[in-house]
Each structure stands twice: as C-alpha cells, then as structure tokens.
Amino acid sequence: MKVQKELSIYMGESTRAMRRQEMEEQQAGKGKKNQKSVFAGELNGIQDNILVKQQKARKEALKVVTDTWSGDKKIDNGLKERRERIKSLQEEVGNAKKELADIARQQEDLQERYGIDADSAEQKDLELLLKSREAGRNPEVSLTKEERERLAGLAGQELTEYQSRVLELDSYGDYHRAIIAEDEKQIEIENKIIRDTKLERLKKDPMQGAQKQAEAIEEAAGKEILGMLAEEGKEHVDKEQEEKEEQAEEAKEKKEEQEELLAKRKDEREEAKKRAEALAESLPTEQLLSLDKIQEDINREIQNIVDKMKLIEEDIKGAAVDQTL
C-alpha cells in the first residue's frame, strides 16, 4: 500500500540516521581509546626519563661517596705509614741508646782496669772534660765559673792514657747521639702530623659530608623528576581539556543535527498523516473497514523495527497512520 510505502521510506531514513549516529559514537569511542593509548605511550616515555635521571643521580652520589672513601682511605694509609715510620725510628733510637750504654760500660771498665779512684784528680778532670763536651752538645747543660777556670787550666796539660781512651769512646758516642737527636725530632714531627690529621678529620668528617652531598644530589634529582611529572601532568590536562572542548563542540553539532533530523521527522509525520487522511477519504467504505487490519500490520511492523533497532516507539508510531483512522 501507499501508506506502507511512505512508512518504509521514512523508516529507511530513520534507520540510516541511527546507524550513522552509532558509527559516529563508535568512532568517538575509538578516538578515546587511541588517546588513552597515546597518553600511555607518553607516560612510558616519562617513566624511561625518570629511570635515567634516577640512575644518573645514584651514579653521581655513589661517585661522591666512593671518591671521598678513596681519599679517606689514602689518609688512613698515610697515617699507617707514618706510624710505621715512627716505630722504625723508635727502634733506631733504642739501638743507638744501647750503643751509648755499651760505651758507658766500656768507660767504667777502663776506670777499673786503670785503677782510677772516683775521687782522684785524674777522674775529676776527666769528668770536667766530659761535661764541657756535653755542654757543647746540649744547651741545657752549662759550666760554673769555677769549672770554666779549671777547664782553662787543663788546656795546657797533657791527657793521661786513661783520659784519652775514655774521651775517644765518648767521641764515638757522638754518632749515636746525633742519630737519637735526629730520630726523636722526626718522631715528634710525625706525631704532630698524625694529631693534626686526626683533628682535621674530626672537624670535617669527610664521609659524613660526602653522605650529605650524595643525599643532596638524589634530592635534587627527585625535585627535577617531580617537576617533570608536574609538567607532563599539566600538558596531559591541557590536552584532555582541548579534547573535551572538541568533544563538546562535536556533541553540540550532533545535537543540532539531531534537532534538525527530529524537525524533519515531525514534518514527515505531518505529511504522512495528511496523506493518510486524504487516502482514507478517497477509499470506499469496504476498503475503509479493512484499515483496522492494515493498522495491525503497520503496528506489527513498527514493533519489529523497534525491537531490532531499539528506537523510541512513540517516534516511530508518530510516522504511521493515526490510530483514530
């Protein structure tokens, strides 16, 4: 029938419109998925950059600590070497003092061998000569006025064999005394260096300073990473805002299109209604009575279409012949 043909034409346009809308929505959904995929890819890139910066910061921090530890280890090795040198010098001083003690015993042996009495003039003169030599070596030893006068008197006297041999042994001891003096001086210097180094280390504590520096490096890297994340988040929010604005604009355009389509549908329904009324007036009575059957067929077709396309039943029925006909 013509009414059915009109309805079929209308339903075909409506179906195509709905399908077109569904396709557009599917495309929009795919676009969102693609956007999510793109952002996921960007996020993976940011994670790679973060990992690189973390590894670089850890490497720099480790280098600071390692370099400081190496320097600290060198200091420890230096202190160890100085202590070993002090030990060696002390052994040398000990050996030199043993030699001087041996010389003193030899001098006592000579006194006993020559039978020199401790209170004799020969022994007193020898002791004054030995004291004079010691005063020349040690500024802390000095001669009294009487000793200097007596020493001046001995200058023209010839030494006895006993005195000569004792003085000769004393001269041999000068070598060992020089070793002792020099070594003790070096020991004092080495001990001072050790004390100063340890004191300086306590003041600065290089390992603690290195640890703080390492923590500062990692903290700076952490702040930089947070900045990167904040910037990336801002860019992502800006992109999402742009996308939402675009989607809103598209939704607005679609709404306008749907409104136009609804207006068109309304016009078509009105036109179809007018045609149906005109057709009803032109039909004979017996054909008019058969309209109920036609209407049932139309309603059944409408229901089938509604079930398949999930359209609004009232919108579709509006395009059919009015129930009152």
Structure explained in plain terms:
There is one protein chain. With 325 residues, the protein is mainly α. 89% of the residues lie in helices and 0% in strands. It folds into two domains: 2-60 and 217-317, no CATH class; 76-206, no CATH class. It has eight helices and no strands. Helix 1 packs antiparallel against helix 4 (161-204), helix 1 packs antiparallel against helix 5 (206-282) and helix 2 runs parallel beside helix 4. The radius of gyration is 59 Å and the shape is rod-shaped. The protein starts with a helix and ends in an 8-residue tail after the last helix. Mean pLDDT is 77; it is low at 1-12.
Report mean pLDDT, rounded to a whole number: 77
Shape: rod-shaped
The number of distinct helices, counting runs of at least 4 residues, comes to 8
Number of domains: 2
Question: How much helical structure, as a percent, in the residues?
Answer: over 70%
For the structure shown, list the relevant keywords.
2 domains; rod-shaped; mainly alpha; 325 residues
